[in-house]
Amino acid sequence: MKVYAMNQLLFGSKHQPLRKNTPVIALIVTFITLLLFTVVPLCYSFLGYPFYPSKRFSRPETSDSSSVSVEFDSIHEHESDRKCDIFTGEWIPDPHAPYYTNTTCWAIHEHQNCMKYGRPDTGFMKWRWQPDGCELPVFNPAQFLEIVRGKSMAFVGDSVGRNQMQSLICLLSRVEYPIDDSHTPDEHFKRWRYPSYNFTLATFWTPHLVKSEEADDQGPTRTGLFNLYLDELDEGWTTQIEEFDYVIINAGHWFYRPSVYYENRRVVGCRYCLRENVTDLPMYFGYRKAFRTAFRALNSLENYKGVTFLRTFAPSHFENGEWNRGGDCVRTTPFRSNETSLEGINFEFYMTQMEEFKIAEEEGRKRGLRFRLLDATQAMLLRPDGHPSRYGHWPHENVTLYKDCVHWCLPGPD
Ligand SMILES: *[C@@H]1O[C@H](CO)[C@@H](O)[C@H](O)[C@H]1NC(C)=O
Ligand SMILES: *[C@@H]1O[C@H](CO)[C@@H](O)[C@H](O)[C@H]1NC(C)=O
Ligand SMILES: *[C@@H]1O[C@H](CO)[C@@H](O)[C@H](O)[C@H]1NC(C)=O
Ligand SMILES: *[C@@H]1O[C@H](CO)[C@@H](O)[C@H](O)[C@H]1NC(C)=O
Ligand SMILES: *[C@@H]1O[C@H](CO)[C@@H](O)[C@H](O)[C@H]1NC(C)=O
Fold first, then answer.
1. What does the domain layout of the chain look like in residue ranges?
2. Ligand 2, closest atom to CA 151?
3. Whole-prediction pTM value?
4. How far is the CA of 396 from the centre of ligand 5 (A)?
């Protein structure tokens, strides 16, 4: 395709420049769009700046991993003025947002329909992401659908991934609603098809990415005790994924829960299982191995030709206590980047998946498979105000995660 044609496709007209301060919502969706451009070489050069930063990161030298923090600027290096790292920036006010509501979009999951459950403030919907040093182009649902015409995209992971897929459906709903094309009645495995574009969206539920089972629905913390088979594939997704053109993988929050780690079908340790003679290992142990196995699966599937995106860890924001010990998220505005930093568990999750991503990317390159980083961590870290908190259900409802500082309101930041 000629650059001119692509120009028209993406921005309507050859002569229409990128508008300054164009409103952008639904950050993840915007990132996906930009990354899709980067896998279409002409679009890539046309846009004038490679979004995909060259990652020259290394683990800071420190002996105390609980207090380390990371400067995103040092990870996403600006190589020259013309290049821009879309993943580093600030949230700035956007008076035009939100771009859909719970009445114009039916795809909002109940527990993320914050306005329905009485969230009193609306300011959290009115921000857009401003990368340092450049503007994000407008998210245009029609253009997005053109780019993905005839393609398929899968969200693989946990409910935060599903949350983001629903955000995408809501944003695209101005152009078209998909039809339910699910292969199973199981709500954890949905397929949606956009008839006019022959575009398929799917979610695959695999919160641990690898084969797992709930060994005990209580466990030491009453959040279940899981057996994780760290070197075995979760066939619920690995047997279905070959046909997909774009695979967006995420995991994180489920690794907090007590788990027994298996390799080669033998117990190698556990995360807070309180079993005699079983070595307690950090949750990053399981997290690293799970990503390794998942990426290896993709790199070894004979017919997989897709582009794999790692959507990096989206931190939760419980303050003044853990999720089950009075923690809550009551802020109503984003952080500025100088008000918080990635540290402790969030940092470890982030670095662990980055390291596994790098290995997988290298392996993939040998096979001609492309891996892309959808590095949403900093942007999401800055949004303590975007969670449902207690507005994800009615007050009298007895739900486990009573105050939800993990998922994201829709409409909302993600
Ligand atoms: C949408 O949110 C409003 C409050 O803004 C609420 O009254 C209504 O029930 C919600 N509707 C749906 C369909 O969720
Ligand atoms: C729709 O897209 C799929 C690939 O996702 C392709 O196999 C199929 O032929 C397409 N159908 C039409 C009618 O274009
Ligand atoms: C734990 O190990 C000790 C020493 O090897 C052994 O005596 C004990 O029976 C083990 N306990 C369990 C529950 O396996
Ligand atoms: C963060 O930066 C803003 C704007 O540059 C400044 O006004 C504010 O005082 C800074 N806050 C902190 C905690 O350094
Ligand atoms: C809430 O649900 C849990 C588990 O289902 C149950 O043990 C508990 O008694 C319930 N609490 C109330 C107040 O209904």
1. 3-51+74-386
2. 5
3. 0.84
4. 11
